[in-house]
Write a structure and sequence with these properties.
Elements: H1 8-21, H2 23-48, H3 53-83, H4 93-96, H5 99-133, H6 136-161, H7 164-169, H8 176-182, H9 187-196, H10 199-213, H11 220-263
Helix pairs in contact: 1-9, 1-11, 2-3, 3-5, 3-11, 5-6, 6-9, 10-11
Length: 266
């Protein structure tokens, strides 16, 4: 039935409107993690950056890896702002020890690790096979199908488990299998929404990254843009996931109510 399907474009639109409609709340939530990220970036730049392009690229990679745990409490607060209507507040040290934050961090790591493991499990054998066969054509014939299969597996994992993130962030008592079951009949729509909310950022961000690695005399401009883009991308993605989670919970309740109504005695 139509009412049991996620509205793809509506969900995407709401996601992009979130940072536009609530910039103050988002900035308040990310203020402390962003300050910590800036200090960490500055410290790493002073200690590790000798000035060559390879060092700049390595430095940006390490900053990206290290900034994720810093922002997890902000992610948890953003989920609760959307789903529980909590007031936007600054992240505190206590948030890093909060049970919901720890569970969100663990769930995020497991999802990323699962996607990475599937991709490597599929692609690595094809790389070795292509090298054994020799020749660019043989390598392409073995690697291209493997890449397509890896992408398919990655999207399958996203469709099944991405809703676990808002679930643990709000401290819901729903178990993993119940959350996975919410997406039945909407897996492809979850994939489309997850792709569409990130597509603009994946198009624009490489341009700023290229400016950094090119050694621009005004690197603070592309770095500032990447920081702003990253915050916006996270806010859009979190809102889209929260919206899907909320809508699917409503649909599940509607199905249960309808089943109870049809089976109830007259």
């Amino acid at each position: 039935m139509a009412q049991d399907k996620l509205k793809v474009w509506r969900t995407v639109k709401r996601g992009f409107l979130f940072p536009i409609n609530q910039p103050g709340g988002i900035l308040k939530i990310v203020a402390v993690p962003t300050a910590a990220w800036l200090l960490l970036s500055l410290a790493l730049a002073v200690v590790l950056l000798p000035g060559d392009a390879a060092a700049r690229e390595s430095l940006s990679t390490w900053i990206l890896i290290l900034c994720f745990p810093i922002y997890v409490p902000a992610m948890a607060r953003a989920y609760r702002l959307i789903l529980l209507r909590e007031k936007a507040e600054h992240v505190t040290f206590g948030d890093y020890a909060d049970r919901r934050t720890i569970r969100l961090f663990a769930a995020s790591l497991l999802l990323v690790a699962g996607i990475g493991a599937c991709v490597m499990f599929v692609i690595l054998p094809s790389v070795f096979l292509g090298a054994a066969l020799g020749g660019e054509k043989a390598a392409a014939l073995t690697i291209l199908p493997a890449v397509l299969l890896a992408v398919l597996l990655a999207f399958t994992l996203v469709a099944r488990y991405v809703l676990v993130l808002p679930n643990v962030a709000v401290g819901s008592p729903l178990k993993l299998r119940e959350v996975v079951r919410l997406g039945r009949g909407n897996r492809l729509r979850i994939v489309w929404i997850s792709l569409l909310v990130q597509l603009p950022f994946h198009i624009v961000d490489p341009l700023a990254s290229a400016a950094i690695h090119a050694g621009s005399a005004m690197n603070f401009l592309p770095i500032s843009f990447l920081a702003f883009s990253g915050i916006c991308a996270g806010a859009v993605q979190i809102h889209a996931q929260s919206d899907m989670y909320r809508e699917l919970l409503i649909m599940e309740k509607r199905r249960r109510d309808a089943a109870a109504g049809t089976t109830a005695p007259a």
